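Let us begin with a simple case.
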Amino acid sequence: MATYAIGDVQGCYDPLQRLIHRIGFDPAVDRLWFVGDLVNRGPDSLNVLRYIKNLQDRAIVVLGNHDLFLLAVAEGIATVRPEDTLQAILSASDRDELIAWLRQQPLFYREDPFVLVHAGLLPQWSIDEAEQLAQEVETALRSPSYRTILQALYPSKHLQWSPHLVGSTRLATIMKVFTRLRACSLDGRMESSFSGHPERVPAGYFPWFKIAQRPHHDTTIICGHWAALGLHCEEHLLAIDSGCVWGRQLTAIRLEDRTVFQVSCSNLELLW
């Protein structure tokens, strides 16, 4: 039995299947953990969603920013952009089933000694607090009023976390942290536009995982989201977005021994 954490797939179905073959995944005994961003920008988001959904309890998924964007587009809250590749999902006969399944997925998954999130955690959040905050959002996303918090997330540039936030703004800000965080200040103020290499983080901000004295510094956090960071492993960090959708690699890490598996995406046929 093995557990494999897999980086941002973003609609890259063929590389995902090659990676599944490479690791020798056996759905009878093995599990796959996905760091989110299952969809968008790559050429076959529809089959990625169908495949992972059909894995049932052999797959653990946390939501990423592109997955939330799909939910918002499906509800008419956000508008598809030229670089988005979501139309096949939106036009599919099983669209409603796929969207409903995606909406049931968590933002945060904890199985000691690991935590699985898409982007990261604010430096002032403990693991217990992060789990409780994620559960607030997950409950709301699974409720009939889920559209309200999606509406509060778009646009999101102005959202900054405070424990005093309430209502849909609070929930949208929690979603922003879990799915979009890359850099922040020492007191947890998020930098909302930066996506480049960590050495070029704007003055006054730091990669979230480089801030000392974090209360979650001794928990191994598995995340993706930061393609410019690439595969980056530390004692308590496994950052595994290796830029498949940008023609680089799709990465899996076997958690039992931290063995890294990768397939090349250099021949990926993008649709934009």
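The second case is a distinct protein. As before, the sequence precedes its structure tokens.
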Amino acid sequence: MSETELPSLTIADVQRSVTAELDRIGPVIDELGALFAEAGHELALVGGPVRDAMLGRQHNDLDFTTSARPDDTERILKKWGDGTWDMGRDFGTIGCRKGPWQVEVTTYRSETYDPASRNPDVSFGDSLAGDLVRRDFTVNAMAVRLPGREVVDLYGGVVDLATRVIRTPGTPESSFSDDPLRMMRAARFAAQLGFDVAPEVVAAMTEMADRIAIISAERVRDELVKLVTAPYPRKGLTLLVDTGLAERVLPELPALQLERDEHHRHKDVYEHTLTVLEQTMDLEKRLPGGGPDFVARFAALMHDVGKPRTRRFVDDGTVTFHHHDVVGAKLTRKRMQALKFSNADIDAVAHLVELHLRFHGYGSGEWTDSAVRRYVRDAGDQLDRLHLLTRADCTTRNRRKAERLWRTYDALEERIDRLAADEELAALRPALDGNQIMAILDLPPGRQVGEAYRFLMELRLDEGPLSEEDAEARLREWWASR
């Protein structure tokens, strides 16, 4: 999705959008505002819901800030809503649900950070202005006082929204010193909103990139996931690379900026990777669940990370990257483990990276049915994503070559569909299971049963489905010949 697709904004557009959204959520904000006022407390809609209201985006999850302490907030919300929760009580937050609405109300906060700590020391504040100045960016530091719906914009957030700029309420150096994760958040908001980041913010990110080391891997991971699944991930990833943050959190990405040989005989791997990511996004509608799909996108981002380790210059001037798929899968697994991803995500992404070149052995369609079955078997539950990655990996500007590759892959998918219809290919298992093998060969559980199962699996791949009778006969014949 290109930046040129973003509609232009004026202050008048912002004002119209926020008025329309405040009218839509009026039944909630006006009622809550009145309840807090009657109890002698201030209340304001704040942060993301205000920003998105100005962008014309609707939310049923609403964030508020208040002068009330958590106990007072809880008493008010219990009278108003269908149920409350207080997992964030230590940080001053009480949550509540009422019908389709979910609200979180947080006491004014004043946060301070120990320079060596990963977590803030939270103390309650006493004013809306003090609460807003601690927030990460001006577009998130706006509020609407309730019940009167007065817009509070102390730091120029409305102008920054209209001009599509990410900047901090105070100095970026102070903001990032307080919470270094905000540097990652700047890149994430650039990716989510399509905004540019102010030069002074970029300069501070570059100067302070080393500070990200004190942030836990889990918090970095969560920001990275949000960035990669955003509408404009190229903007965020480019910012991470240009400021040196990527070198600290995802060093495999800037490592793709390989020096070009003097004859320019290989493409820019870094730019190729970002293009593959964007082409994967364009193809996500082919997935059963649509998009955004983190696994597919991250596999696109990591698919060539093995190239820097495997690059070799041949005597004739050409460049090779032999086995970069295998090396890349190992690097991907190691990086995702360091970032504390789930085993399921690690396995899925690393598997796709390892398989992303497999299609290129298909040639012009010379694979046997046995080879097609093995392709499906090896892809397993990642077959749909492998289809996407393989297609997206074609970034040649030679239109004839690109069309030929697409036609060939179309033909492979058609063969897979045809074989699947004929053979229940998705299941892809032998005619006999382990219990049947043990009964036929009179074996206890153990290694020999596994060998017999693999023999039957190879038969299945080579010859397609067999009846149980034929499978038993072949199994007995194989066993007797051992």
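Residues 437 and 477 are 13 Å apart (CA to CA). The chain has a mean pLDDT of 88.
Keep these points in mind for the review questions at the end of the chapter.
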